[in-house]
Amino acid sequence: MIESGNGKPRLFKIIVSQVVSQQIKGQYAQARLSGQGLEFREILARLEKRLSQDPREFGEPLYELATMQIRHGIVLPVHMQYGVHVDRPFVFLRLIQFLPPNK
Question: Between helices 37-53 and 18-33, what is the axis angle to 10°?
């Protein structure tokens, strides 16, 4: 977590583009069709909390850009990719995927 001036942890702001927002809606629809809609929503809520508190502790790094580290993580049945700004408390969602169970 990034410390704020008064010693309290500062939460990261999660940035979701319109494209990713549409992607999430499509993935949720897919999860609902497979009977995992509620689970998908619950996992997204947990991931949102986790990314807002300490995104560098979730998942694994993929690569570095000049001002951002790109990471990915999985909490089945959800896979996500996101960027964490190096100096500022920003997380940029890049990709959300629903991973349906193999039957």
Answer: 140
